[in-house]
Amino acid sequence: MYDKPLLAWIVREQFASTAAMLDMTFDRQMYGIALPLGSKLRKPIDVAMLDTTQGDWWRETLFSHLGER
After folding, report:
1. Closest Cα partner for 25 from 39, 50, 7?
2. Overall average pLDDT of the 52-62 stretch
């Protein structure tokens, strides 16, 4: 099973006339970035991820590649 955004893109780009995605999610997937204990990179990475995913650029990029959700 692919991640939903990747699968949606593949269906749209390669199989638009022969396949469709169902609008359902089986299980939410969480991701993480592994760092050594006490890493000084943890806070800058957290801040960068939040800034990126909460900004207009992120929403516009998702929409341009995946369409409306």
Report:
1. 7
2. 86
Q: DSSP per residue over 2-59, as a string?
A: --HHHHHHHHHHH-TTT----S--S----------TT-TTHHHHHHHHHHHHTSHHHH
* Sequence spans of domains, the chain: 4-66
The end-to-end CA distance of the chain, in Å, is 19
pLDDT 10s digits, 2-36: 577 888 888 889 998 998 888 776 666 677 889 99
